[in-house]
Amino acid sequence: MQLKRLEACGFKSFADKIEIEFHPGITAIVGPNGSGKSNVTDAIRWVLGEQNVRALRGAKAEDIIFTGSATRRALGVAEASLFFENEGDMPVDYREVVVTRRLFRSGESEFFINKSRCRLKDISNLFADTGLGRDGMSVIGQNRIDEILNSKPEERRLYFEETAGITKYRNRKRESMRKLEDMQGNLVRISDIMKEIETQLTPLAESASRTRRYDELQAVYKRCALTELFQREAQLKKEQEEGATRIEAARAEEIAAEARVQMAEAKKEEIGKDILLLEEKLQAQGEKNNGMRTKIEQAHSEIAILEERARQHDSVKERLEKQRADFEKAADEAAGEAARLLAAEKELAEKFRAMGEGIEKDRAKLKELGEKLRRAKEMHREITERKAAAQKDLLARENDLLLLEHEMETYSASGAERGEELEKAAASLAALKAEAEALAEKRRVTEEEQQSLEEECAARRQEKDGNAKELRELRAAENRAREEMRADENKLKFLRNMQASYEGFGRAPKAVLQAKEPWRRGVAGAVAELVSVPGEYVRAVEVALGSGLQNIVTEDTDTAKAAIAFLKRQKLGRVTFLPLSTIIPRRPSDVKAKEEEGAVGFANELVGAEGKFRKAVDFLLARTLVVDTIDNALAIEKKMGWRLRIVTLEGELLNPGGSLSGGGAQGQETSFLNRSGEIERLENRTREGAERIAVLAKKRAAVEKAAAAAEESLTKLLHDLQEKEILAAELRAKDERMGAQMKEKEEAREGLAKLAEEARQTFAEAQAKKNEAVRRAAAARRAYEAVEKQAADSEDTLDDFEQDADDLSKYINETELRRTVIEQEKIRALEQALLKKKEEERARVQADASLAEKAALDEQMEKGGEERRELASEAAAWQEKHDEGKAVYDKLYQEKLERHAASQETDKAAREAAHDLSTLKNKLHQMELAAAEVGVKLEQAQNDLLEQYGHTAETAAAEALDLSSAELKKKMQEISRSLEELGPVNPNAVREHEELMERHAFMGKQAGDLEAARENLMTMIHEMDVTMTRQFKEAFEEIRGYFADIFVRLFGGGKAELFLTDEKDVLHAGVEIEVQLPAKKRQNLSVLSGGERALTVIALLFSFLRYRPAPFSVLDEIDAPLDEANVSRFGKFLGEFSQNTQFIVVTHRKGTMEAADFMYGITIEDAGVSRVLSVRLDAAM
User: Fold this and answer.
1) d(CA 716, CA 1117)
2) Tell me, what's the pLDDT at 311?
3) Secondary structure (3-state) at 645
4) Which helix (H) or strand (E) holds 662?
5) Hey, how many other C-beta atoms are within 10 angstroms of the C-beta on 1149?
6) Contact 276, 922 (CB under 8 A)
7) Angstrom distance (rounded) from CA 1141 to CA 85
């Protein structure tokens, strides 16, 4: 098998798709730090099935997906594929095998083999025992060296198992052990089920026999019931026919009654029409009479009105004359007021015009004043600008003066400081020379103390190694003890659960024991729970008790009765109860039998129980003798005349009369008593295991304490040594710094002297500049003060102009306001004058109207007398016509009363006819209801015949018994008594009995199959253990030799050894590594240097590859800690082993690159994005 190619996209820094071709030999992957070289190694490990994200240098799963950069967005999926050339060492029928793994940012993963979806387990199985598994050393990434060397011996063993090719056996064995445990549990359950079935078969057979008898009686009873139903159906048919005849006669009577009702209704309707016609005539005549009466009343009313008008004519005429005089007076007053208002309006108009002329003159003055104000503002602005320029110049001159003064102060202070610094520098230089001499002495003393601490640390390390070895042995022993105790605890828990759930008990006893009813307090428990039996008598007592193990002991008979009622109610079956208040133990008649040879004693004497439960034990076992063997039992039975009940320790049972039963025993865990003994044994073992673990833990704690003390002492020494090394380094550095400081101090002193001379010259130049600046500042201040005075005068003038303009503007505004008020008063006077004019005109019109109304009133009085005479004549004629109409109305009303009397007679006759019809209808309805009821009963009887018996009336005649009703009733009563005597039966008993027999046979076959499978599985596990032991032992011995040889070649001497922590337990022992470097003592792996540790792992890797060459090996900067000489050796070994193994090496080392056949470069093209470059070295050379 060869790795041909890696393809990746979105994996870590490979944002774009990359392809790396791998060839036989050595392929080197190089590039600067952070370029993404190790991501190639991570991609290969990830596809091979690595699940630990930290092993891939990540914190969470999504860290392996490209996270984005400054110019690239993050991706949502990472994918990598490995292409293999299959040469028959992979269990698939493909020449090329492609394994792909894909991860989405949501956390979902996908796995593919040749583009077919699969599981991670399928990929693990694909590479099992090829050297590429998870526990192999084919891929060694960064920091893996420490992981391999620092791992526990048991964890380190996994690398050897992978190389030895027994990983698949280990996985199969683990799976087989799990199956074996499940199989054992299934066997126990099947045995319990079979025993429960056996206890149920006998009572169920009896129940099935009673059920069959019940079914026979039910069949006869059913035929009798069919006959009864058939006879009832015939009787109902007869009743139906008779009812039909009676209904026909009632319907004929109903028709005659309906005819009488219709005749009466017709006559009543005719009279009603006559009454309606008369009512219409009455209404018309009444309306005509009312019209005449209305006209008469209107004539009388109008006559009364005319008479009233004549009486009121004089008063109205006087009122109209007075009203006309008032209107003429009001018109004269309005005319006078209008003349006054027009004169006032004219006066206001003249005043409004004069005020307008005055406002125009004031506005001309305001305009002239505004021009003067503008010129004053212009002048003030110019003066203000000159003032600002003078102020700016003054500030600049004063700032220059301040700067020069500050500069002179600085130069003066600087000169003084230079002098002081020069003196200090000389003193510091002298002190530094004295300190350097003291430092040299302190450095010598520190180096001597450092040498002493190094020697003491070496001694402490040897003590630590001894403690570590002893601690490993104690931890291994403690772990084995914990595993044994854990197995016992698991089995104990399993058995306790079986006891608590009453496994093996029948459904009925289990239901009583687990019931939550009030009577449950009176239940002491099952016999099996209440007795304790020594282990050697368990089998005998179990057989002696038989189904009595499931008998339930109660305090009294009331509890037993309540429980039996519960069982009946729930239809759960039967249980035997032993009420302590009523049971009477029977003593054995042949007490001397227990003195015979082989007799152990009566069973009740061998069984333990609490005081009050002893009575139940005696009741069940007092007449059963326990004998050691069946031969002795037969001899005693024969001697006693076959009267005894004897059970042997092996479980054979001899019953009185000579019957004998026996056979193979079920497994221990199938029996409640055996489980109790096993639970007690496991509890003892668990306690002993806990004590043993406590002792080991105590020893381990003592050793750990000693190791911790040694470690603490070593740590303190190392800390002291480190402090001394740091102190020595600091002293060396300080010595070097002091030399440099002395040189710097001397140079600084010379520089300070030069600076002091320069400061004196600079101070003199600054003094001359200051004097010139003082003169210029004084001239600038004088110019500023003159301009400031001009600005103040200009500002006063401007304020005067602005005040005059404001006063004049305010006066104009007030005048315009008064003019506006006068204009409003003028308009209001004109409007009021016009209103008064209109009032005058309206009053004169009203006076003329009053005069006209007076003339019309006189004319109307003359016409009113003539109208009164005409109305009186018409009213007399209308009164005569009204009297004639009233006589006609009275005649019509009398005729209507006569018709109403005839209608009442007819209505009475119609009601009597309707009553007769209703009575007939009710009678007919009752007949129809009775007929319908008979029909329903008949239909029900026919349906019952069809549904219950599957017969029609015609076919039922053939099945019906030829018996009278009395004979039939007697026969059915006899069958009912027989059914009652049978009592309650289980209708499903026959079917349940057959099903239970089938289930018992099926369970027996299942138990046999499971037992056979268990034996096969045990044999297979044993064979796997033998194979793994042999294969691991052979591989370990060869790898041990290779490791010793390659270690010497890599280190140029020394010694290395592999050994098992427990030579007797090859299957579980861990692997220890001990090395002795050239010219050094034997050392623990933890104290080796980085390069020495790397070479040790490399030696182990090449040992594995020599024993079993892996298809390929990926090494990620494994050569980083090596020096050039060891890198050269490493390169030679790569070349030597590359004949059988394909190497992919991530490296920075020149020597490793020189050994490579192909080289890929990884660069960072974009921020955070890696790119691949390839070079074929043989072509390049």
Assistant:
1) 34
2) 65
3) strand
4) none
5) 22
6) no
7) 14
Residues 508/567, Cβ–Cβ less than 8 Å: yes
pLDDT value at position 8?
93
Task: State pLDDT tens for residues 291-345.
Answer: 777 777 777 777 777 666 666 666 666 666 776 777 677 777 777 777 777 777 7
If one counts every other C-beta atom within 10 angstroms of the C-beta of residue 127, the result is 21
- Cβ pair 900, 278 in contact under 8 A: no
The answer to whether residues 338 and 886 touch, using CB atoms and an 8 Å cutoff, is no
Closest CA to 511 of 563, 452, 559, 462: 563
- AA letter at 477: A
Angle between helices 1090-1107 and 1124-1137 (to 10 degrees): 10
Burial class (CB in 10 A: 0-12, 13-18, 19+), 1095: buried
What per-residue string of b and e applies to 814-833 under the rule 16 or more CB within 10 Å gives b? eeeeebeebbeebeebbebb
Residues in the chain, pLDDT under 50:
666-670, 1179-1181
Whether the Cβ atoms of residue 530 and residue 580 lie closer than 8 Å to each other: no
| Helices vs strands, H then E, count in the chain | 20, 25
Element of type H or E holding 924: helix 672-949
CB atoms within 10 A of CB 441: 9
The helix-helix angle for 989-1051 and 167-500 (nearest 10°) equals 140
- The alpha carbon of residue 240 and the mean position of all alpha carbons in its chain are separated, in whole angstroms, by 72
Asked if 179 contacts 1017 with a C-beta cutoff of 8 angstroms, the reply is: yes
Measured CA to CA, the distance from residue 506 to residue 667 in angstroms comes to: 18
Helix (H, G, I), strand (E, B) or coil at 36: coil
Whole-number Å distance between alpha carbons of 702 and 972: 93
CB 1070 within 8 A of CB 152: yes
β-partners of residue 82 are: 6, 99
Residue among 1091, 1093, 1089 nearest 1056 (CA): 1093
Going by C-alpha positions, the residue among 342, 147, 31 that lies closest to residue 1162 is 31
CB 100 within 8 A of CB 47: yes
Euclidean distance between CA atoms 106 and 953, whole angstroms: 75
Predicted pLDDT at 100: 95
| Number of other CB atoms surrounding residue 299 within 10 Å | 19
Q: What is the DSSP letter of 11?
A: B
pLDDT at position 79 = 94
Rounded to a whole number of angstroms, the distance between the first and last alpha carbons of the chain is 29
Write out the E strands in 358-484.
none
Rounded distance between C-alpha atoms, residue 184 and residue 498, angstroms: 14
- Whole-number Å distance between alpha carbons of 282 and 288: 10
d(Cα 558, Cα 317) in Å, to the nearest integer?
129
Q: Torsion-angle region of residue 142: left (phi > 0), alpha (psi -120 to 50) or beta? A: beta
> How many Cα atoms within 13 Å fall on the side-chain side of residue 834?
6
Burial 1097-1125 (b: 16+ CB within 10 A, else e): bbbbbbbbbbbbebbbbbbbbbbbebeee
Taking alpha carbons only, the member of 83, 893, 12, 759 closest to residue 422 is: 759
Measure the CA–CA gap between 578 and 522, rounded to whole angstroms.
Answer: 12
DSSP notation for 215-258: HHHHHHHHHHHHHHHHHHHHHHHHHHHHHHHHHHHHHHHHHHHH
Q: For the residues of 991-1008, what is the DSSP string, one character each?
A: HHHHHHHHHHHHHHHHHH
How buried is 526 (Cβ within 10 angstroms: 0-12 exposed, 13-18 middle, 19+ buried)? buried
Name the residue type at position 131.
G
Angstrom distance (rounded) from CA 723 to CA 339? 130
- CA atoms lying within 13 Å on the CB side of residue 1024: 19
| 1153 φ, ψ (degrees, to nearest 5) | -60, -35
Residues 702-717: pLDDT tens digits? Answer: 887 887 787 777 777 7
